[in-house]
Amino acid sequence: MSDLSELHLDALAEIFSIGAGRAALSLSEIVGDEVHISVPSVQVINSEDINATTLSLNSGRFGAVSQYFSGPFNAEAVLLFTEEQALKIVSDMMGSQMSLEELAEFEHEAMCELGNIILNACLSAMADILHFTLESSLPNYRVASADEILHRLKENSNQPYVMVLHIDLAIEKRHTTGNLVFLLSSTSLTNLVIHINQFLGSIS
Question: Which keywords are on file for this protein (predicted)?
């Protein structure tokens, strides 16, 4: 499939953990409380092999923040939480005692902000450490079923690889799990391997 070894995946997990730490600091300022975000694992698979189990998707609905990044490493990034978790995160961000129905009015804007913080923090950490520059689009948020999300991830034949980061996020002792998914072309994956090899060579 690719030249990504366990060493490459471990390096990516470390890099994205640095980005997650940056995102946690930014979110801490927004919610006024301590936030912890960790990236316990990274995997790269063929998009045709992705399924509900891979992404821990059940039969419910999910909030998905998507954003495009371009540079030597081109990707569409998608941050996934269940809709229930998304609304709880919005509640923490708003710092209010609103009902879930009232919070739904702010869901789009707040989740776009959350996605922008996490996605940009993770990608900027990668760019800083691997020494390249990335441009990003504005984030977009939508709520979809598991089947709709899987179809969306599989439909683009120009991006045959999927890099999945499993995320643990804790706000005010509320523990949430989600996934950060990158859709990658063959060229982008090859360029990523090249940059990781250069990084590993510089520290060996």
Answer: Chemotaxis
CA 142 to chain centre: 15
Average pLDDT on 124-140 reads 94
- 10 Å CB burial of residue 37 (0-12, 13-18, 19+) is buried
Give the residue extent of every domain in the chain.
6-203
pLDDT per residue over 97-123, tens digit each?
Answer: 777 677 778 889 999 999 999 999 999
Strand, helix or coil for residue 33: coil
CATH of 6-203, one of 3.60.130.10, 3.30.70.260, 3.40.1550.10, 3.40.630.30: 3.40.1550.10
Query: pTM above 0.70?
Result: yes
Q: What's the confidence (pLDDT) of residue 3?
A: 67
Specify whether the CB–CB gap between 124 and 134 falls below 8 A. Answer: yes
Which H/E stretch holds residue 168?
strand 161-171
* 68 token code pair: 């495009």
